[in-house]
Amino acid sequence: MDGGLTDFYRYRTEKSPRAQELIPEELSELELYDRDDLQKSFVRQQAGEEREASLILEGIVCAACIWLNERHVKALPGVLDFAVNYSTHRARVRWDNQRIRLSEILEAISAIGYHAHPFDPGRQEQLYKQERKQAMRRLAVAGLGMMQVMMLAVALYAGAYEGMSDGLRSFLRWVSLLITTPVILFSARTFFISAWRDLKRHQLGMDVPVSLAIGAAFLASAWSTLRGTGEIYFDSVTMFTFFLLAGRFLEMGARHRAGQAAEELVKLLPATAVRLTEAGEERVPVADLVAGEQVLIRPGEGVPADGRIVEGRSSVDESLLTGESLPQLRKLGDLLVGGTVNNESPLVMQVEQVGEDTVLSAIVRLLDRAQTEKPSVARTADRVAGWFVGGLLLVAAGVATWWWLHDPTHAFAVTLSVLVVTCPCALSLATPAAVAAATGALTRLGVLTTRGHALETLARVSHVIFDKTGTLTEGRLRLERADLLGTVSHADCLALAAALEQRSEHPIARALCSETDADLHAENVTAQAGLGIEGWIAGQCYRIGIPEYVLELQGGDVAANKTDAEDRDGVLLGNDQGLLAHFIFADRLRVGAAEAVHRLKNLGIGVELLSGDQATAVRAVAGELGIDHFQSRCRPGDKLARIRTLQQQGAVVAMVGDGVNDAPVLAGAQVSLAMGGGTQLAHASADMVLLSEQLPHLVTAIRTSRRTLTVIRQNLAWALVYNMVALPLAAAGWIAPWMAAIGMSTSSLVVVINALRLRNIPSD
Amino acid sequence: MDILFLLIPISLVIMGVAIWVFLWAIRSGQFEDLEGPAHSILMDDDDPRIPHRPELKDDDE
After folding, report:
1. CB A249 within 8 A of CB A135
2. Does the distance separating the beta carbons of B11 and A87 come in below 8 Å?
3. Cβ atoms A53, B1 nearer than 8 A
């Protein structure tokens, strides 16, 4: 083994995709990326001829792939730097344009079996990065500050009992002030800014009392330090800041992940298209296409825009948009939708809609709208919080006034006690702490939560709606059985079939090729769109495809074998002597699908199946799983309508899906789950992602969410009881601010410890 | 206990250094990929053994 690549084979944990030899057309597509006008959108020019671009890498399955890519690309002369991010599967490449061109780098990556697309990281990504870095800085300062101040606080508390010289005591207080100041000015600034924004919009968010408590406690402590007497609350202030920041940091991470997935949508449309002009063919960027032009779409290529076929017939894979598992035959005059994939033979399409007017952009807009309509739950929570905060501030003001009139010397201490003791710490921690603990536990299980409200809503779910293809089933065809019709053995039939289907992109071809390792070669292979494939193997002519096509080879009687033709998913294999085998394909049910449906029903949840697929296929799956309510041939609009009907009857609907066509439906349901193997768009619009692809985990997630809701209720009850007991005591002046601080911390601790119980998911 | 008047300022300086190191780490992108490096450390390009093991040449993939 040359090249020192032993490590790759030693450490790889997954089989990597096979190296692809680029056919000349793909090469010319890559070369298009060298054009300066196209590069403008994704390449950053640096000093001289040095350039930098971001790439999305496809085919990365394990860390060894990263190592292989980095090693291979870095070794190219002219490449200055190449770094792959394992978490995001993005790469950054820096090269010297005089010594190597971008197309050569992309070609080198293809040569080892991966696919790289340049993309424009855009402002959004830059913003995410900034936000993340800023949040980490705030967290770092708050965390280190908190540790130091806590250490000093322990000394001060101990000193209060054991006795401490006044000089040392005041020294420790000054040091605490010194450490807390940057925490307040830098880390806690985000609360102040957000509270100020709320106030300007005449709203009361959680950040208002948080800012008030942090600000007031800090100012009072600073005043006490200056005067040399009175209580200080630096420990509470820094701890409070740190915990709140930590919670928000985790929330931000989940939000960014969802946003990134949405950005990868661009991959659905190809970057370039072949335009047909009077002068011949030319490759142009898709953005340059205008309505009325004709484009050539070769087999295996994506459709660049919406349009109508003016020449050729072929099968087109529309599964991304319609959920239909088999490619659809499209002929002269039929509509093609941008983002679908041409499977079999070349098509010439007249472009009708480009850019914003295409179906794909419409789906994206639908999704955007559904997503912006969504956070009604969050808005309600905010409104309630607003009332609570408003009431709290009123009480504090009332207490302050009363004490000011009756006993001005104690007014500040008592008011501060009231503010601190009722600080909505426990109340604001009650939900996030429980949600964070449960989310963490579920993530370890392989269920990723991308939106904060998902768990709360999942607990109240009354109906679960499944998509079929890719959700309840595995989403790819597999050979179910092969009926032998001749004397050739099972293995040989498979080998012959695979040899014929080698070059085809049809799902049936992929299913056949994955069944055998034999290395037969077919010559003079010709494919007839919608019919089958013919080829010569070892001097004999073979055909594979629909019965009429294969029987034609023997000149036999088509009607005699008509019964076989009724199975839609079957194909025949034959040569000029006779038929050899009948292959039957099916999309297999996922392991655990039946168990999941059964357990959902046991929990009293209604299960429905809405699919874009054929009625027979849907009925078969529903029957096998015991789903009573199902609908076939649903378009995304139909699914959305069904969900709206259920919702009007008061149901809380969870939608489980995987495709682009599911995206608007996912966004329309109260809570939605996407399969891990599903499309990026589905991920982006889902509230949760089943990375494990195990449907029973859905049930676990629902049970966990119900437990979470119980814990949240316990926490809220505790926080309310605590506040109701503590508030009158504090208002009466019986609680000193230091007691209030301890009370507040204890109350928060109880809430957090209660929430931590959720970290263990009981096996059921 | 007078030593505290010296030790605590020293601890403050150490804390300042810790914050500075942390901020440096954030600035230089140490936290951008938290998964990859854990794997890549296992795969050392400069492992001197690999090019010098002729018996591996006959290995298949």
Report:
1. yes
2. no
3. no
Tell me the C-alpha distance between A671 and A653, whole Å. Answer: 7
What percent helix, strand, coil does chain B show, rounded to 5? 60, 0, 40
Contact predicate A186/A378, CB 8 Å: no
- pLDDT tens-place string over residues A517-569: 777 777 777 777 667 788 888 778 888 887 777 777 776 555 455 444 444 45
Residue of B11, B22, B50 lying closest to A140 (CB–CB):
B22
pLDDT tens digits, one per residue of A167-181: 888 999 999 999 999
A472, A593 in Cβ contact below 8 A? yes
A587, A474 contact by CB (below 8 A): yes
Q: What is the DSSP letter of A334?
A: -
Instruction: Record the pTM.
Output: 0.56
Question: Which has the minimum average pLDDT: A120-124, A218-222, A460-464?
Answer: A120-124
Select which of A235, A467, A587, A662 is catalytic. Answer: A467
3-state secondary structure of A349: strand
Instruction: Report yes or no: A670 and A477 within 8 Å, Cβ to Cβ.
Output: no
Nearest to A392 by CA among A412, A373, A418, A369: A418
Bridging pattern class, strands A653-657 and A671-675: parallel
For chain B positions 20-59, those within 8 Å of chain A (CB to CB) are 22-23, 26-27, 31-36, 39-40, 42-45, 47, 50-51, 53, 56-57, 59
